Automatic annotation (TrEMBL), chains A, B:
Natural source organism: Ruminococcus intestinalis
PANTHER family noted in UniProt: RRNA METHYLTRANSFERASE 3, RRNA METHYLTRANSFERASE 3, MITOCHONDRIAL
Gene3D superfamilies: 3.30.1330.30, 3.40.1280.10
A single MF term (Gene Ontology): methyltransferase activity
Location of the RNA 2-O ribose methyltransferase substrate binding domain: 32-106
Family: Belongs to the class IV-like SAM-binding methyltransferase superfamily. RNA methyltransferase TrmH family.
One GO BP annotation of this record: methylation
Annotated protein name in UniProt: RNA methyltransferase
InterPro entries in the cross-refs: Alpha/beta_knot_MTases, MRM3-like_sub_bind, Ribosomal_eL30-like_sf, rRNA_Methyltransferase, SpoU_MeTrfase, SpoU_subst-bd, tRNA_m1G_MTases_N
CDD domains referenced in this protein's UniProt entry, alphabetically: SpoU-like_rRNA-MTase
The organism's place on the tree of life at top rank: Bacteria
Amino acid sequence: MLFVTSKDNSNVKKAVKLKSSAKERRKSGLFLAEGLRICMDAVFSGAEIQTLFVTEKAMQKHGEDFALLEEKAKNVICVNENIFALMSDTQSPQGFLSVIKTLDKTNEFDTIKGDSKYLALDNVQDPSNLGTVLRSAEAFNVSGVILSCDCCDIYNPKVVRGSMGAVFRIPFIIKSSIKDFLNENPQINSYAAVVNSDAVSLTDVKFQTPCAIVVGNEGNGIKAETEKACQNKITIHMEGKAESLNASVAAAILMWEMMK
Amino acid sequence: MLFVTSKDNSNVKKAVKLKSSAKERRKSGLFLAEGLRICMDAVFSGAEIQTLFVTEKAMQKHGEDFALLEEKAKNVICVNENIFALMSDTQSPQGFLSVIKTLDKTNEFDTIKGDSKYLALDNVQDPSNLGTVLRSAEAFNVSGVILSCDCCDIYNPKVVRGSMGAVFRIPFIIKSSIKDFLNENPQINSYAAVVNSDAVSLTDVKFQTPCAIVVGNEGNGIKAETEKACQNKITIHMEGKAESLNASVAAAILMWEMMK
């Protein structure tokens, strides 16, 4: 274990960059997972921890968990609270932060099974929404999540944390576009979720598997080219003056009905 | 219209306080609504705008809407961007912010109708969750929302914004406890949402009206005394390693099924 007391240490500087820069995460193939529980989730799902940062206090408070994390991490660096705060994305840091190799789940999408049920996200932008969507997708046992490459970065610390570790466990794939994914997999029955009273009400939809529900951007919905590539249009019937649901709520309701 | 250029102006100082202090909001009976759309929502729902703060740029950009807001607001104060930022809770302020009298919807709960369907929130703490829950409650046409007084403040700027204006339109009431509300209204059939495999699965529940679903705190769920006061226990069946859903997602799924 290394003890680092300078914020100019190269490992610390790199972690600070990984926190805020999606470009840096892409370039290095690394991302951050913060919090004891999420670090443990990473270990249990077999993710590769390159560096574990801890504070002295955290080590003492969670000795047993720390011992396991220390065993699995390639490097362990102990820092003081001030340095930890630079790398942390939370208001009250717990003192555990891992630098992890980005996950490759591409092969989990090699075979589309007859009963597979997917969620496809078209340009979803809000990290809290994306994290919550992954958490719900895991809870409802969705086969996998497809993200268009213009979605917010799945390795954003807010996504990782908001997913409650689901990012480590759920199959996901990032594609150039949802249109391309659907064209490459013509056997998938596609259902575009739209806010349009002409679309089929979700309660009347009989999902034909394998299938994928497509959810769009928070403000603008699904791209025109994506909607065109979908075979079906479905909608969540709403009352009152509400014009739409929060994207993560809409995705959850859609998955709930698809998985029933 | 007043032009204010000092951050020490008493109106500005009061608004800054209202942004961050729930105590100040309670004491003064005032709260903030930020953004053009939410200010318009306030007007259309008949809320009383005590002071409207605008920037010059916002006035020019949205002349027509500003004219309407100006007509309805008791006072209008034009401030520069720097002063506006002090009162704002957003990263890119739009230049519209209203100081509004807190809403009294108590009488909407005087009569519990035979077909009423409520959502009760027991110590829900996260403002983003609460805002999203109100938005969903409106979209699904829930009869009203009951909040225990230890829930996060419904007039928190994040709640108001996250509700997309639903806070102005949906009936809500703040009670000392959910237990008290249920005891005072014994005709209401109560359904406690719990994470417990012994509870009835949501898909098997036949809701008897009038009814209320009770949703609890993000980390600890429903209080023991509240659960005891409920006649039924229901649960959202989950798969995989997910231990729970985000509170606003769980509330949405529960309301979706209740309102079907």
